[in-house]
Each structure stands twice: as structure tokens, then as C-alpha cells.
Amino acid sequence: MSDPRYFIYCRKSSEAEDRQVLSIESQVREIKELAAKQNLPVVEVLIEAKSAKEPGRPVFNQMMQRLYRGEAAGVICWKLDRLARNPVDGGAVIWAIKQHRIRIITPAQSYAHEDDNIILMYIEFGMAQKYVDDLSRNVRRGMKAKAEKGLYPSLAPPGYVNDRTKQQGERDLKRDPERFPLVRRMWDFMLTGLYTPPQILEIANAEWGFRTRRTRKMGGNPLSRSTIYQIFTKPFYYGWYEFPVGSGKWYHGSHEPMITKGEYDRVQDLLGRKGNPRPSTHFNFAFAGLIRCGECGLTITAEEKHQVICTHCRFKFAYRRQDICPRCQTPIEKMANPLFLHYTYYRCSKSKLPRCSQKSISAQELEKQIDQLLARIQISPRFKEWAIKYLHELHEKESASRNEIIETQQKAYKECLRRIDNMVKLKTSGGNTDGSLLSDEEYGRQRSDLLKEKAALEELLADAGHRVLQWLTLSEKTFEFACTARERFAKGDDMAKKAILAAVASNLTLRDKKLCVEAKKPFLILETSMLGCGTQMQAIEPEKTGLSQGRKETNCPHRPTLCACRDDVRTYGPEYQKLVRSIYHFFTKECGSISFKLSDWSFLNHEQSMDQKRN
Questions:
Q1: Distance between CA atoms of 251 and 238, rounded to whole angstroms?
Q2: DSSP readout, 246-299?
Q3: Contact at 8 Å (CB) between 162 and 156?
């Protein structure tokens, strides 16, 4: 009878090629020396790079099947935890010893059915399982401690990198110098409202050459569709994260935020509904998706018509799906100088109310009405130059009031800190041992709310100087836009026209072929101050509508106009100064909110870059 033969089984926990390689080599060397010393024939050396904390290791399972078939009498390994760290695999080894009489040999001990030390295997496998459980708890506890300190407990999202210069457990996130500006630019594109996430994804991968950060196992690939949506829905980018995900516990990160909370909220609105990204399908036409039907409230859509007039029978028909005249059967290619027609119409989608009575309107007529709206806010270049000059004077005069605002914010910040301290004292007081004064649930909720308030105030205080400059910049751009909006609209492409209308107006509805709009606040101030050019200007809203309307009164020439047709105004009195102050004070209140931001004007930069490409 031949001597029993054995498998040598060696395992390392990591699948990475450059980790624990020496562990495998040392295991094989030591076990071969043991087999030679005890004269144990070896059938095969089996090596596996797989964690044993869960069942499902392919090499181990195949080895057990071969043992059941009698290909070997047992296994030689370094320690029992190399065979199993979970109760399923551990039970399989013990069952094989009892049922199939296999033998397990380690440098310290051997285990067989006839021996009395099987109970030790139960203890060894139990200790191995306990090690995995303790390690898991320790990792979770360490990640929670990192999260509470503001250190993001996971791999850095696109635009950031983990700081490897610090010790493990203290590593925070820092800017990825290569990708941070590109991801920020993706947010800017999304904030304009002119791009869908798939369009931004195509631009980033194809035009910018964006590639993910390369790591040991992966990376160096184009950005995926799922990742672009994760970027635009991840609160991490404005400084907050939830850990564990779904727990409702939010932490303020110590990393540098890429965007503000207002910008994040605005992108969620643009995506469709908060936290649920939904791509838009209205970007093939200039105004589709911006306007709603005044009768049923559904979105206004657009459609194109491509027609040709037959030169033989003068019959007009659509030619995109047929190449012969339906009446006289004359092929289009045989017609002498056929007249091709191309129309774009805007109409109610009627998806939920097919009986909606509203009729379509041509793109030319709709653009004409939008031009009338832009005419109501147009100013002359002379007044624009004077207004910007006066803005700088006003900016300097109001430095004292700006300091008062900063002092108020500082008081609010100190009050927030005081409330946090009082809450912690109440939670840790001796009378709250049973949670009667402040329960754990209430403490967690109040703590989260106060930390968010504290972070918002810190953002205001840290960015105070930038916001003051932003007030001035937004005011300047308002006057510059009002001076050139009509010209830009007339010469711009569909994307520019869409951006201009979205920047000027809100609550757009179409009823009885009339566009009803509400000018946004800065332009509403400008429109209210412009009382005509010597002739009455007709309002473009319908007389009867159940919807909210803007100003409907016709303009009367009470005082000198701000319009371009009266460039003879050389001095500007108190009423013009009041107009400039009103717009400037509007931005001192609204700057930093989601209603109006500097990124609203980024489409002008896009338009300028397109002009440079065309030139």
C-alpha cells in the first residue's frame, strides 16, 4: 500500500500582486521543509490570494472536492486560519476529518479523526472568526471616528485625492491638481441650465480628455455615466457627507468644498427633483422645456416640419419620409427647382390633456415676442458706462454698512456655538442619564441641524470679502447684459437664445399664442424704471389669464428714458442713481442664494468662446 500523500495549501488575504507576496513564499518554504522532515509525500502545492472571512474561495473548494474523492489523505498548512476564518469553511474541514478521515497537519499540531484534539480545531476556528469580527468592528469604529473629525472615511471622489503624506487614520482629502478644476467646470456647465449630464460627460471625455485617477487596481478610464450623476448628486462637494450611508448621520468635512450649498440645491432642481437625477430631453430646440401651456400647465414642446411644394401640381407635402409627390407621383429628384420649406413650431405637448385647445406658434413669432421683452429692459451704452462708474462709487461709500453685516454674522456664529455648548452640557449632565432631558434621537437631530447652521455661517464669514466683490460684479453684468441682450439674442444660436431667456424671465407661459412672462428681480427693477421712449410700449401678456402676470400697464413718458433711442441724456439725476442702488442692494441680499448667482452669466463666456472659434 502506497504512502498517503498530501496537499500543501497556502493563502494570502489580499488579491493585489504587490501585497503579502513574501507571506506566500515563506509559507511554501516552511511547509515544504516540514513535509521533508516528516517524510510526507506532496501531491500538489495550492496557492490562493483570497480573503477567508466569507465562503466561496475557488481553490479551497476544489481542494475539498479532491479530498472527498480521495486524491490526497490530507492538507499541510501553516496555521488553521489559512484554511478558514468563517464557520462554513471551518465546518467543512471538521466534517471532512470526521466523515472522510482526512488529516490536517501544521508545524505546531496535527489533527485527525482518531486523535482527541478535534475540540482544539473548534477553538482555533472560533478564534479566527472572532479575529475577523473584531477587525470589522475596529474598522467601523475607526471610520466613524474619522467621520466625526471631518475626515472623509472612504476613497476620494473625483476631483480630490487622499493625502498619503499623513499617518493612516489622520489622512484627509486635498485637491487633485489635475482634475479639481475640470470637475468644478462640470458644475459650472450644469449650473448654466444649458447642458444635461450626458452632454457634460461627452465634453469631459472627448474634448477635455478627462480620465479617472489611476490606482493600484483600476483607473485611467473615461468618466462613466453613473459617475457623472454621482458627482451632481453628492453633498460631499459642498462639504457634507453621510456616514454610514442611509443612517441619517451627517458630518461636516474638513476638506475644501468645491461648490456652495446654494449651487448644489440649484443643480438638484435642474436635474428634475431633489436627489433624483433625471436627464432633460428639451435641448434640441431653443425654448422647449422653458415654457408651459397657459391652459393645462404642461410643458411646451417643439417640432420641425420639412415640406416641399411640387412644381407640377403645386401640392405641398412632407418630404422627409417620402421622395415622390402623393398627388401626381412625381419624384422630387425630377422636379424643376422645387421649393423646400422648413418650419419650427412650439405647441402644448398635450400628453395628459389631449383636448387642450391651445394652438401652435411659429418660432419666428415667439422670438419676436421675446425681442419685445428684451426691448423693455434695454439701456444705452452711455447709461451703462455711467451706471458702472456710479456702482464703484456706491461700493466704496457702503463699506461701513458691509462691516455691520459682517458683525451681525459674527454674532450669529457665536450664538450658534453657544447653543451647541449648551446642548452638549445638557446631554452630559447628571440629570440626563436616562435621557429624560435630551434623548439620543433628539440630540442627534439637534446636533445635525446646529452643525449645518454653523457650517453655513462659517462659509459666509470665510467668504465675506469675495461676496462683497461678487455684489459689484453681478450688478455690473446686469447693466452690461441689459445693454447687449437684444443684439446677442438676434445673432446668437439656439443655446445662446435659451440662456438669455432663462436669465431674464421666469414663470413663462404660452396662451392664445401670447407669451406671458415675469421678469426676474434685477431686470424687473430695470424695466419698472424705464417708462417708454416717447411712445407707448404694448405689454406682451394676454389681457385675461388665470396665471400670475408681470406688469401690464403701458409705459408713459414721465421722465427721461434710459433706452438706447435717447442717447442725448448727458447727466443722470437722483432717479437714475436710485435705479443703480436698487439693483446693487438686490444683489447684497440675494448673492449666495440659489435665485441668482455669478454662474448665471457663464453662458456669456461660452458665447464669447464660440465667437472666437468662429472667427
A1: 12
A2: TS--EEE-SSPPSS-HHHHHHHHHHHEETTEE------SSSSTTT-EETTT-PB
A3: yes
Cβ proximity of 363 and 354 under 8 Å? no
Name the nearest CA neighbour of 222 among 213, 235, 231. 213
Pairing of strands 110-111, 103-105: antiparallel
Pairing of strands 339-348, 74-76: unpaired
What is the DSSP track for 76-90? E-S-GGGT-SSHHHH
Model pLDDT for residues 73-96, shown as the tens digit of each residue: 999 998 888 888 888 988 889 889
570 touches 545 (CB < 8 A):
no
pLDDT at 305: 81
* Amino acid at the residue 584: Y
For the CA atoms of 490, 486, 203, 363, what is the dihedral angle to 10 degrees?
-50
Whether a cis peptide bond, with omega within 30° of 0, leads into 338 is no
Going through 182-336 in order, the beta strands assigned E by DSSP cover 240-242, 250-252, 272-273, 276-277, 292-293, 300-309, 316-318
How far is Cα 24 from Cα 85, in angstroms, rounded to an integer? Answer: 17
Alpha-carbon span 394 to 161, nearest angstrom? 43
Contact call for residues 310 and 330 (beta carbons, < 8 A): yes
Beta-bridge mates of residue 361 = 346
Q: Measured between alpha carbons, how far is residue 185 from residues 219, 229, 451, 499, 609 in Å?
A: 21, 15, 28, 17, 15
Q: Could you tell me the three cell numbers for 283?
A: 435641448
Report the Cα 411 to chain-centroid distance in Å.
Answer: 33
- DSSP per position, 519-546: E-HHHHHHHHH---SSS-----S-SS-S
Which pTM does this prediction carry?
A: 0.48
b/e map 559-568, b = 16+ CB within 10 Å: eebbbbeeee
Pairing state of beta strands 173-175 and 316-318? unpaired
Cβ proximity of 391 and 476 under 8 Å:
yes
Residue 328 in contact with residue 314, Cβ under 8 Å?
Answer: no
Residue, of 275 and 408, whose pLDDT is higher: 408
Asked whether the beta carbons of 44 and 7 are under 8 A apart, the reply is yes
Taking the CA atoms of the chain, what radius of gyration do you get in angstroms? 36
Whether the CB-CB separation of 20 and 14 falls below 8 Å is answered with yes
Distance CA 352, CA 357 (A): 13
3 state SS for 33-67: HHHHHCCCCEEEEEEEECCCCCCCCHHHHHHHHHH
Round to whole Å and give the CA distance between 156 and 171: 11
Question: Using CA atoms, how far apart are residues 77 and 85, in angstroms rounded to an integer?
Answer: 14
How high is the pLDDT of residue 25? Answer: 85
Distance CA 599, CA 195 (A): 13
Q: Which three cell numbers stand for residue 606?
A: 461660452
**pLDDT tens profile 285-322:** 778 778 888 888 888 888 888 888 888 888 888 877 77
